[in-house]
Amino acid sequence: MEKLDNLPDAIKRLLNADEVAISLEALEGGLSNDVFKLVTTSRELVVHMLPEEDATLGVNRENEFAVYNNAKLSDLTAKLVAYFPKEKLFVTEYLPGRHMVEKQFDDMCCLEKVIRALKRLHQSDAAKSVYFPVKHAVHCYGMSHKRHFDIPRGAREALELANNINRSASPLCLVTCHNDLWLPNVLESGDIHFLDFEYAGLNDPMFDLACLANNAKLSPDAMQDMLTLYFMNPLPVLYNDLQASRALVYLRDAMWSTLQAGLKQNDKLFTLPETFVITP
After folding, report:
1. Residue 280 has pLDDT above 50, yes or no
2. Whole-model pTM?
3. Integer CA distances (angstroms), 68 to 12, 164, 200, in order
């Protein structure tokens, strides 16, 4: 058995006296941090290497670790094993399974399993502070000139549109939300698990539902089914609120990508757009 020697010192300190690291391989999916699977003689772990720009991107590590450590959610996500702030990395248990894909959501049973798991997250008290992604994006753009890249044409109008949608929607109570439910963050292994809680925080649950609707490309009928599964007897106004929240999600994603490109953290993944196109 070949032993790995070129590990970060923090990971070496994490290993038990009789534990040997066997392999370290990159995992797909991480956009704002590098993620690796570490296999040892006694366990499988995930090592998250953190970027320098956590605060600018709106990452909230306090909320993330609170979700990982919440006893009520132990079967919904990976357990936090260790955090090394000086080395800017943390370690979680490895969860086997497969990332969900759009086609799976054609199955009503699959959609029901995901919504049931999402409601459990929302009903937990894991998040410790208020954080709303679109409002943070407004702050990010206000600071962008200090980062030496231009705000795309139409971005200010897009932010104003986001604020108008915020004001017009019928807000639900704030709950612990994931806030980044693209499908690589939803793992299926018989049960449903959620990954990567770096944007977790208190938010309107409709935002998570909108994230899921956009990323799973749900049909209008499937979106209505989703609302029925979540709210049991949803009022008609909730469907309109879902559509407004979907627009917020699209705006947040566009602004996040633009900010990433401006910070040049993901040159191969993001291109700085010249303009935002806004359709009333």
Report:
1. no
2. 0.83
3. 22, 34, 11
